[in-house]
Amino acid sequence: MEYKLTFQEYNEALKNDKLLGLKCLECGNIIVPPKMVCGKCNSTDMEIIELSGKGKIQTFTTINVAPEGREAEVPYTVVMVELEEGPWLTGNLGGVDPANVTMDIIGKPVIMKDNLVFAGDKYSAGEGASSNFHLVA
After folding, report:
1. DSSP letter string over the chain?
2. Is the CB of residue 60 less than 8 Å from the CB of residue 92?
3. Mean pLDDT of 22-32
4. Model-level pTM?
5. Taking Cα atoms as reference points, which of 55, 49, 50, 100 lies closest to residue 79?
6. Strand partners, 42
7. What values do phi and psi take at 58, rounded to 5?
8. Rounded-to-integer distance, Cα 115 and Cα 133, Å
9. Given a cut of 80, is residue 120 above it in pLDDT?
10. What pLDDT, in 10s, does the model give residues 127-136?
């Protein structure tokens, strides 16, 4: 079996502020980040699609003790966003001081932009990218 969308391709797209996902041709489920099979029906019949990167914050946490390699970034806020297309995606919340983040951000609209590129750490396969969401004014 072959991946329709490899993690490397997904990662390269993120570096260019594009969010790629997969659409299952059997049941219509949208998958992001990429997986080999549909999580809903287990089909491998999928096509690559570009997602809008728009959604609403469903939950969040502010990180004050960072994992190895991200110590210089603390504090930072991580959000779980329900994308307009349906799936939920984790990413950083940019443009907001983590000290000012409260429960009021739940349900707020966001858009993915200015994704973060990082060098990687001893556990990764090298340079990567992370989705970065900003509140919609």
Report:
1. ---SS-HHHHHHHHHTT-EEEEEETTT--EESS--SS-TTT----EEEEEE--EEEEEEEEEESSPPTT-GGG-SEEEEEEEETTS-EEEEEEESS-GGG--GGGTT-EEEE-S-EEE---TTSSS-EEE-EEEE--
2. no
3. 97
4. 0.87
5. 55
6. none
7. -105, -35
8. 8
9. no
10. 778 899 999 9
CA–centroid distance for 132 within its chain: 7
Tokens 């210089």 — which residue? 72
- In the chain, where are the structural domains located? 7-51, 54-135
| CATH for the stretch 54-135 | 2.40.50
- CB 112: neighbour CB atoms within 10 A? 23
Alpha carbons 93 and 133: distance in angstroms, whole number? 5
Q: What does the alpha-carbon distance between residue 90 and residue 67 come to, in Å, rounded to a whole number?
A: 16
Write out pLDDT tens, residues 57-69: 999 999 999 777 6
**b/e code 15-32 from CB counts within 10 Å (16+ = b):** eeeebbbbbbeeeebbbb
